[in-house]
Amino acid sequence: MMPSAALDVTNLCITIGETEVVQNANLAVGRGEVLALVGESGSGKSLTALALLGLLPRAARLTGGRIRLEGEDIARLPERRMRALRGRRISMIFQEPTAALDPLAPVGRQIAEALPGASPAHIVAMLAEVGIADPGASARQYPFELSGGMCQRAMIASALIAGPAVLIADEPTTALDVTIQAQILDLLRKLAHERQAGILLITHDLGVVADIADRVSVMYAGRIVETAPVWELFARPRHPYTALLLASIPRLSDTPKAQLRAIDGNVPSLTELGPGCRFAPRCPLAGERCVIAPPLEDRGGNHLSACWHVDRLP
Ligand SMILES: Nc1ncnc2c1ncn2[C@@H]1O[C@H](COP(=O)(O)OP(=O)(O)OP(=O)(O)O)[C@@H](O)[C@H]1O
Ligand code: SF4
Ligand SMILES: [Mg+2]
Fold this sequence. Notes:
Blueprint: E1 5-16, E2 19-30, E3 34-38, H1 45-52, E4 60-69, E5 72-73, H2 79-85, E6 90-93, H3 97-100, H4 107-114, H5 120-129, H6 135-139, H7 148-160, E7 166-170, H8 178-195, E8 198-203, H9 206-212, E9 215-220, E10 223-229, H10 230-235, H11 240-247, E11 297-298, E12 304-305
Parallel strand pairs: 3-8, 3-9, 6-7, 7-8
Antiparallel strand pairs: 1-2, 1-4, 4-5, 9-10, 10-12, 11-12
The structure holds adenosine-5'-triphosphate, iron/sulfur cluster (SF4) and magnesium ion (MG).
Iron/sulfur cluster is lined by residues 240, 277, 279-280, 283, 285-286, 290, 294, 307-309.
């Protein structure tokens, strides 16, 4: 999709039991770019992220698609080879940094684990780069001695020290208070550009999207329904689901509080999905054609959407 994509995911399918909980998902993240993946709870965002890292839970199976990391397909690598990539060429930060850090090891030592052979000076420099004050002292501290925001910075240091092509951040700021949240997002954006890493940022907060993303992919019930540059998506959504989400936001300047929960109905139970458009039960534009799943089509301007009735949108 993108010539210099750090990550290029095509037709990713993830199955739990008999159900394709993620179906033909396409995503691409360029170097230095932040792609936000948004969608309601249960839409398949975290499973997608875990699949990219080769860390799907036991119940879930990768049943289709390609995952290209800098051109190399890593979808079906043996675990031994995935382990060598994880944290080095593709890394991840989580919602709860304190849960992801080992409480029994000093922060500096944990960062060193991400890049064996890194000198103490390199580790301290990395801690400084993520905005940790007094990085020399902090390297010797244990996670419980640091605030949540500082722990998240340490996680980011650990995720980036090896210079990965891709960083996946699954709701990285939800556990932090609003001021710290904004600082961490600024930091991620800055580091993506400076270190030329592609960031896949998973969030259900449109304010976060507006603040940090270059492009956005919207996931609904396991399918990508729209992908566009961020302002293009906000200005001119080309899918009824996105349009409804945005219509529920009074003004863009109010987006910091906007969560993706404000539209009527619920994400359908994934086990009850038919073959047609998965948004049909909630869609005000649904018609006869929608019993067939709409393909993700190019609407011009690097804007893709999956809907039969785009022409009926304003
Ligand atoms: N380990 C698991 N076993 C069984 N079902 C699972 C498992 N993990 C996820 N699922 C199901 O897969 C679907 C997608 O889950 P996923 O965690 O990817 O959603 P999400 O978009 O990350 O949601 P949230 O915003 O709440 O984090 C959901 O229906 C969920 O119930
Ligand atoms: S394809 Fe049909 S049901 Fe699906 S979003 Fe478009 S109009 Fe709505
Ligand atoms: Mg999730």
